[in-house]
Amino acid sequence: MKGNMNNMMKQMQKMQxxxxxxxDELHEMSFEASAGGxxxxxxxxxxxxxxxxxxxxxxxxxxDIEMLQDLILAATNDVMKxxxxxxxxxxxxxxKGMNMPGMF
Length: 104
Known about the structure:
- This protein has helices at 2-28, 65-95; strands at residues 30-35, 40-45, 50-55.
- The protein is α+β, with helices and mostly antiparallel strands.
């Protein structure tokens, strides 16, 4: 019985190391989303930190600030969804088959 427990602990430690490596790799990734046919582009890292916003000059219209705001929101929401999906795909492999509420 003791051998099984030690073996299980080693397996858990191995899985934990794999999870930490996968999480580190996710944090280093870069994600990009555009809106308005590329008029607004938002770049974020895997930690959900916006690292760049690019706005094409021709989309800046002082008489239509709302459109620019909508494009920025759309691109930002899209990039955040990409990060969320990738995180769920990557980290979900570690929780498959486990009924653990609150885990990826």
